[in-house]
Amino acid sequence: MLAILLIILGIVHCVMVFIYFNSLTGEAIFSLGTGIAVSFLGLLNFTAAKLLNPMLLTVAVIANAIQTLYGLISLTIMNDIQAFVGILIFLISLIISWVVRNRTNSSLEK
User: Fold this and answer.
1) Cα distances (angstroms) measured from residue 60 to each of 9, 17, 24, 109
2) Nearest to 2 by CA among 36, 42, 37
3) Tens digit of pLDDT for each residue in 23-78?
4) Sign of CA dihedral 5, 87, 92, 29
5) DSSP labels for 43-108?
6) Measuring CA to CA, which residue among 42, 47, 66 is closest to residue 57?
């Protein structure tokens, strides 16, 4: 499941902070926060997929859209393969959450 992949990606991102940085600088804290945010995004997507609550699915779509936008902006700063992989995962999450939300809303209207 893609949500599990997001959680793992966030955890790996957090662990890598302590490998790449010698001390907790502003950049290290920012990177650690990004990893935590990605993990929470995965948890949100996992919960939304399991509960199929329309409000929660809407929040997941918005969060996925914000994270995808954030990833695209980060490409202007870093042009690394992990940024491209992250954006691909965020974009797929956005599309899937959008489709699930629309299907759930249309089935509730019937």
Assistant:
1) 17, 26, 31, 20
2) 42
3) 989 999 999 999 999 999 999 999 999 999 999 999 999 999 999 999 899 888 88
4) positive
5) HHHHHHHHH--HHHHHHHHHHHHHHHHHHHHHHTT---HHHHHHHHHHHHHHHHHHHHHHHHHHHH
6) 47
Q: Report whether 62 contacts 44 (CB < 8 A).
A: no
Domain that holds residue 80: 2-109
**pLDDT at position 82:** 80
pLDDT in tens, 67-103: 999 989 988 888 888 888 888 999 999 999 999 999 9
How many domains does one find in the chain?
1
Give the residue among 29, 19, 9 at the shortest CA–CA distance from 71: 9
